[in-house]
Amino acid sequence: MTDTAKISIALCTYNGEQFLRAQLDSIIAQSIDSWEVIAVDDGSTDHTWEVLNDYAAVDGRFKLFRNEKNLGYNGNFQKALNLCEGEYIAICDQDDVWHPDKLKFQLDAIGNSLLVYHDSELIDAAGSSMNLKISDKFNFYRGSSPEAFLYLNCVSGHSILMKNDLVAKALPFPSNFHYDQWLAFVAASTGSVDFVERVLVQYRQHQHNTTDILARRKSARSRDMKLAELEREAIWIAKCAEKATGNSRQLLVRLAALSESRNRSFAEPRYGIVIWQHRHTLLSLLKKSPVSKLFYIVRKIWGSKAKKLL
């Protein structure tokens, strides 16, 4: 292995001792060995730090960092990415299990793309298959139309292998938004994304998952929460518009203005019309019938004055 590993694996941990060893063992079992693990612990109060040190003591490819104060999920990954020096960066959760050829297949596939991702199988806390893949829930996208990631995301953080050049383009992460969706958007905006049609990770589902992909944590939303969601969507679209270029930028600037108009109104039909006109990219990830997509769009047009009545 050279002094600088070809692939830096950004691993963020926080109170993850229960599943961490299985994840680390699957990294060590990779069929290529030119990698390093940049592990950043976010102030764990269990034995996570001790587990990391056990592995670092016998394998010099593990480089450990510990935050003095908790940075949170996005902040910790941002720090980890800044510490990565490899030509490529793989993002790693603390509770999954990698296929032995994950890095090899992704390295072979990335080509001229800035980011490549893959399919994953969902497993339960005990490691048993849930007979469900991410591709069962979303259509996968390859290409350079960033608006595909405006409303939906099929790129899970744990599935990402990206070129180090993407870090400078994507950081800092917008506050209070999913970092993996942002990385996919920026990669498609400034280059292209691709995917490997293989299941390369067993994606563990348990009560402490940050992303609720199975929508198990449903709760009644208050009026204030509904209004906050409208505002959050408008801010997100505006952030994406700033990063986009060309025709994508023109579309997103228009959507940003219409979402703001919706937020001040009872409803904004023009917002829905534009989404429908560009549904083949904007809703390309939505694995639903045209009728379901229409209902999805109709729900988007209702503004703050309508939400206050519901």
UniProtKB/TrEMBL annotation:
CDD domains linked? GT_2_like_d
Task: Kindly give the InterPro entries that the UniProt entry links to this protein.
Answer: Glyco_trans_2-like, Nucleotide-diphossugar_trans
Domain of life where this protein originates: Bacteria
Question: Single GO molecular-function term?
Answer: hexosyltransferase activity
Q: Which Pfam family is an annotated match for this chain, by its short name?
A: Glycos_transf_2
Q: Where is the Glycosyltransferase 2-like domain?
A: 8-111
Q: What is this protein called?
A: Glycosyltransferase family 2 protein
Q: What organism is recorded for this protein?
A: Dyadobacter sp. 676
